[in-house]
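Protocol step 4 of 5: obtain the predicted structure for the target chain.
Materials: sequence only (see below). No template structures provided, no constraints applied. The aim of this step is simply to have a reference model before the mutagenesis design in step 5. Sequence pasted as it appears in the construct record:
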Amino acid sequence: MNLDYKNILWFLGIIFIQIFFIDALDFGKLSSFFSPVIISFFVLKQRLNTSMFQLLITAFFLGIIIDIFRNSLGLNTAIILLVAYLKPTFLYFISSNEDFEKELELNMFNIGIVRFLLFFGVSIFFYHQLFFLLEQFSFQNFFSLFLKSLINTIVALLFLIFLQYIFIYKK
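Step 4 output (structure tokens):
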């Protein structure tokens, strides 16, 4: 399948799963501890030769669509733009950029499970930590904020591993 069509399907699929599946789950009082955001996966999995401009435009539209449905007033857009901008920095944590081919799509089958967990774990934890911090707009209950971010990151990573086993085939 053409790369552009695959990206369009992933874009629409991630939005659909986030809005109509993950956000629709209700766990009562525990819902604040279970609200993982997986939209950053689409931005982070893009090939290394994707231009920063294209990455930021994609992140902007992804964030705006999620903000409209989640009624979060641009919070997701701002954070996903920051994650897209810092993607090379997060990638540098797991290895140098020369370790990967420029045409390589970043998923757990191409970079390995350990690198996947480090790269996506750090990135998604950063997303959740910043999201909850800006949502609360206070450092009070920082331990609770850290715990919510950690739980949501672990749930998001498990869900993304499950999605990759279903939709991305190991070569």
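Step 4 remarks: The chain has one domain: 3-20+35-167. DSSP finds eight helices and no strands in the chain.
Proceed to step 5.
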